[in-house]
Specification:
By secondary structure, the protein is of the alpha+beta class. It has one domain: NADH Oxidase (3-Layer(aba) Sandwich), CATH 3.40.109.10. About 40% of the residues lie in helices and about 15% in strands. It starts with 6 loop residues before the first helix and ends with a helix. The chain binds flavin mononucleotide. Flavin mononucleotide binds next to strand 3.
Length: about 200
């Protein structure tokens, strides 16, 4: 009753949405990915810095190179997923700040002039955007399978560069047979929320 979002959308995004481990063969198109990005790009980040970068792994050759950096238990489902995305943080996001935060263009150097500051900020804000991305995948009627069971340095060297820090790999598609384990319990409100 307290939520404005209708119940069907609540189910689609959260209650019925699950982390998929198997997928059908139905392709995930570039148009779907564009629609997802064009929705979730509005999720907030510090000073609108928007450090998330997305690498779509489509070719069989690239998929093979990706899978070798994943933990054993993540390999077969990633090899078979219709689409896989590498989500990373751009540690040089400040180059775009004059465009993204035009009322304070000096922030590029005054706030984010030092690389360690940028790396900390990019890690937090790209992780937030990764969460928006997962919810966006669900909004497209698809299921996401995010994974951090992988060799991050190997993945970075294989697909990225020194300026990009990989965050996770996300399998995307329509859930296939036996797509998930039984739902695990969540913490209750009283376990999580305190008021001071
Ligand atoms: C950042 C992140 C990393 C994850 N890494 C893995 C992984 O490496 N392998 C895996 O099988 N599941 C992984 N998961 C899936 C979680 O275990 C799953 O989302 C969680 O148990 C909730 O499942 P549910 O959405 O079906 O309720 C990951 C999820 C997230 C969000």
């Amino acid at each position: 009753m307290s939520l404005l979002l209708d119940a069907a959308a609540q189910d689609l995004l959260f209650r019925e949405a699950r982390t998929a481990n198997t997928f059908t063969d139905e392709p995930v198109t570039d148009e779907q990915v564009r629609a997802i990005y064009d929705l979730v790009k509005y999720g907030p980040t510090s000073m609108n810095q928007s450090p998330l970068r997305v690498t779509l792994v489509r070719s069989p050759e690239a998929r093979e190179r990706l899978v070798q950096h994943l933990a054993e238990g993540n390999r077969s489902k990633t090899a078979a997923a219709p689409l896989v995305a590498i989500l990373s943080a751009d540690n040089e996001f400040h180059e775009e700040l004059p465009q993204l935060f035009p009322h304070f263009p000096q922030a590029k150097d005054a706030v984010f002039g030092e690389r360690p500051v940028r790396e900390g900020s990019a890690a937090l804000n790209a992780a937030l955007q990764a969460a928006y991305f997962i919810i966006g995948v669900r909004a497209a009627g698809l299921a996401a399978g995010p994974m951090t069971g992988l060799d991050f340095e190997g993945l970075r060297k294989e697909f990225l560069d020194d300026d990009h820090t990989p965050l996770m790999v996300v399998n995307i598609g329509r859930p296939g047979p036996d797509a998930w384990f039984p739902r695990s319990p969540r913490l209750e409100f009283e376990q999580v929320v305190t008021t001071v």
